[in-house]
Amino acid sequence: MAKSEPTSGPTPEKPGTSTRRIRVPLTGTLNALEGDLEIPAGARGIVAFAHGSGSSRLSPRNRFVADELRAGNLGTLLIDLLTQEEDAIDVRTRRPRFDIELLSNRMVTVVDWFARDEDTAAIPIGLFGASTGAAAALVAAARRSVEVGAVVSRGGRPDLAGGALADVRAPTLLIVGGRDTEVIERNREALAQMSTESRLVIVPGATHLFEEPGTLEEVARLAREWFVDHLSISARP
Hints:
The protein is an alpha/beta fold. It has one domain: 3-Layer(aba) Sandwich (Rossmann fold), CATH 3.40.50. It is 34% helix and 22% strand. The protein contains 6 helices and 8 strands. The protein has an 8-stranded mixed sheet with strand order 1-2-4-3-5-6-7-8, sandwiched between helices. Helix 3 (100-116) packs across helix 4 (132-143). The longest helix has 17 residues, at 100-116. It starts with 17 loop residues before the first strand and ends in a 7-residue tail after the last helix. Mean pLDDT is 88; it is low at 1-5 and 7-11.
C-alpha cells in the first residue's frame, strides 16, 4: 500500500476560535516551552499534545489530528517539550527525546499552566501522546489524576511509563498500527498494568507513523470520539 499524507485538507476553524502563541515558563530558569493554543468558542475540553521522538509542535501528523479535534469542539495545545537549547542537543545526541522523566515533568508543567491561565482554567484537560510522548502523557496523568480527564496514545510507548501506569485514573485509549507488531506487544503489556478504563485499538494495515491512506484519519476519528465521550465541563474540579 502506498504511503501518503492525510488526504483531506485542514478543517476550517469555527467562528469564535481563539488562537494564541504561548510560552510556558520553566521554574528556576529563564527558559519557556513554546506552544500554539487554539480554543473554539464553548470548547468541551482542551487537549495538550506530547510529541514523540524527534518531533515538535510543527509535526504535520499531530497538526492534522489537532484540526480534527477542534472540529469536535475541543481546544488544542501543540507545544514543544524541549527548549531550543535542548532541541539542539537532541539533534546531536538523540538523548533528550528518550528522557521520559524530563518529558513527563514538562507535561505536568503544562497541565499546571492550564489551571493558571484564564482562558483554560475551567476547561477539562485531555492529553494526546505519540511515541515516547505517550509515556510522558501517562506519567503526567498519574501525577495530576484529578486534573487530567482522558488520554490518547498514537503509536506510543506507554510501557515506558513504568510503575506510573497503575496510578493512571484517566480513561486511556491506545491506538497502534496493525503492522507495528513490536509496539502492539508493548501496548498490550502496558494495558495489562492499567486499572482505569482503557482500550487498545489496532488500525489494520497501518505502520508506526500511520502513513498509509486513511489510517491517520482513523486515528483522528478515534481520538476525537474518545475525548468527546470522556471530557465534559463537569469533569473539571
